[in-house]
Specification:
Elements lengths: L1 H48 L6 E6 L4 E5 L8 H13 L2 H14 L11 H16 L5 H12 L2 E2 L4 E2 L11 E3 L6 H9 L4 H17 L10 E5 L4 E6 L11 H18 L2 H15 L26 H14 L5 H18 L19 E4 L4 E5 L2 H18 L1
Helix pairs in contact: 1-2, 1-12, 2-3, 2-4, 2-12, 4-5, 4-6, 6-7, 6-8, 8-9, 8-10, 10-11, 10-12, 11-12
């Protein structure tokens, strides 16, 4: 009897200690998230001053102390207003909202853009968030028109949305990033828009599921199609270390994309694929201890090569959503990994000092190393998905 009582008391004490530890961790994360959004509010006011009114921020180069900007047709043009909107959602800082509205006004015309597949990044990360947060109906026509524009790139014979126009190198390129733009189509269909848009999104996701992945669930960056019959011409890369390598941000796009498509369809194939991709990422022997990936999981020179904070931001945000749908065991693993990534990104190793970094939040992202573009610099989408990950952690796990 005494032994039984001792065992019960021991288990109760252990359970209490575990609960207290978990509660303390939640308190710590809440404080961290509060601090990050307070920092972001002030930092993005610095960034706003560095960016002329008719363009968008792109990156910052410390050597020249200059913020590089882009026109609104650049694929990243929606991330700056999207980040501002996440900051406003958390803080209700009205100056931040006013800045977001100014940038939305110059971006709005791109709802007609059909030059590539990036309408989801451009218009849903911006206007989609604006509509969700403010509930202002004036944003809805822009979202609907952008979705219609995106569908002009759908190739029914191949059942894919063509990413870029044909070049000497690519006949009908589709990149793994394209999964991210399906959210625009699926959301519009589910919210009173044309149901064919979601059918297109599903067709594209299914075709990519069949053709874009290796047996270990890593993703190619580019699959080149014959758009007349859907045949695969070749598989390769534009931004990875090699055609056979696992470009880190590309793995993040894949994870995020199939998690998001499961949200819209509840198709178990997408959930299964997302879990497999998560396994590939989290169990990769070249994943660093701080969980901020090298720019490519197979990059030459590891560990003496560049990191990609943007990949960590995308992966963390995706893992937090995937944790909402999967088993309790997987959820525990995914949330712990995402938390580790967030804590690393919030550390001095990756987070800018106040007023520095041109006004961007995160340092040490890699855009396209083989193209010698945006190497070891801040990037707008790194900040965007970092803020999204913070918001998701706060909303779902605190």
């Amino acid at each position: 009897m005494k032994k039984l009582l001792f065992t019960v008391c021991f288990l109760a004490t252990t359970s209490l200690a575990s609960a207290q530890q978990a509660n303390w961790k939640r308190v710590q994360m809440k404080e961290l998230i509060d601090e990050q959004f307070e920092f972001a509010t002030q930092q993005y006011k610095v960034l706003a001053k560095n960016v002329p009114a008719q363009v968008m921020p792109k990156t910052y180069y410390a050597k020249s102390n200059k913020v590089e900007t882009s026109d609104t047709k650049w694929w990243c043009s929606g991330f700056y207003p999207g980040s501002l909107l996440y900051i406003y959602e958390y803080t209700r800082d009205t100056a931040t909202l006013r800045e977001a509205e100014k940038r939305l006004a110059i971006l709005e015309k791109e709802k007609h853009y059909t030059g590539n597949h990036d309408l989801g990044f451009m218009m849903y990360c911006s206007f989609g968030n604006a509509y969700r947060i403010t509930k202002d109906p004036k944003y809805r026509p822009t979202i609907d028109t952008a979705a219609a524009s995106l569908t002009t790139r759908y190739r029914p014979n191949a059942k894919v949305i063509q990413s870029w126009n044909a070049t000497k190198k690519w006949r009908g390129p589709v990149i793994i990033d394209n999964l991210m733009n399906l959210e625009l189509l699926a959301w519009v269909s589910d919210n009173g828009g044309n149901p064919k848009y979601k059918e297109i999104a599903i067709n594209h996701a299914d075709t990519s599921l069949k053709n874009h992945f290796r047996p270990d669930y890593s993703s190619y960056h580019v699959v080149d199609y014959d758009m007349n019959n859907g045949g695969v011409v070749k598989r390769g890369t534009q931004q990875g270390a090699s055609d056979a390598s696992a470009w880190s941000r590309g793995q993040g796009w894949a994870l995020y994309g199939y998690t998001m498509m499961y949200r819209f369809t509840k198709d178990e194939r997408y959930l299964e694929q997302a879990n497999h991709i998560a396994g590939f990422i989290l169990n990769h022997p070249n994943m660093p201890a701080d969980m901020v990936p090298y720019w490519d999981f197979d990059a030459p020179g590891i560990p003496n090569t560049y990191r990609d904070a943007s990949a960590a931001s995308v992966i963390a945000s995706a893992l937090l959503e995937l944790g909402q749908y999967t088993s309790k065991k997987n959820t525990k693993v995914y949330v712990a990994a995402a938390e580790k990534m967030i804590r690393s990104l919030a550390s001095d190793a990756y987070l800018a000092k106040p007023g520095q970094n041109g006004g961007f939040l995160l340092m040490h992202s890699t855009g396209a190393l083989p193209l010698r573009s945006e190497i070891d610099v801040p990037l707008t989408y790194a900040d965007y998905y970092y803020l999204e990950a913070l918001m998701r952690y706060k909303n779902w796990y605190l």
